[in-house]
Amino acid sequence: PGGEPATPLAIDGGERLHGLYGAEAADVVALGGDPVVEGGTTLTGEIDWAIDREAALTLEDVIYRRTRAAWYLPAERDLLAPAAADRMAQRLGWDAARRDAELAAVRDRYTDELSFTTGEDTSP
Predict the structure, then answer these.
(1) Is the separation of the CB atoms in 85 and 92 below 8 Å?
(2) Whether pLDDT at 69 is above 70
(3) Which of 11, 70, 73, 87 has its CA 20 to 30 A from that of 59?
(4) Whole-angstrom Cα distance, residue 43 to residue 84?
(5) pTM, to two decimals
(6) Chain centre distance of CA 26
């Protein structure tokens, strides 16, 4: 009642953001505190931070290494990849073919990670 609205850093103590960005978490949020996808936890500022401050040039880099959404936000990652690809295309000047190739590379990696092998050679 009458209090300040919750900020991304106040939600869940900002543990995820602080874990990823440390003392720079507030700077990341300042770039964009809205979720990339509705109901998601990855923020637009995280995509922009990855591009502007961490020199991320591929969607795979953003999804796997920068936001780590591929590992830690599995329920969000499938929706996040195309939305992040759109944002990166806009920010980096990708054409539709590049955007689609980046998205395909991430989806191929998802598929590879979900395929299990025994390590045994099963060829005839």
Answers:
(1) no
(2) yes
(3) 11
(4) 10
(5) 0.81
(6) 17
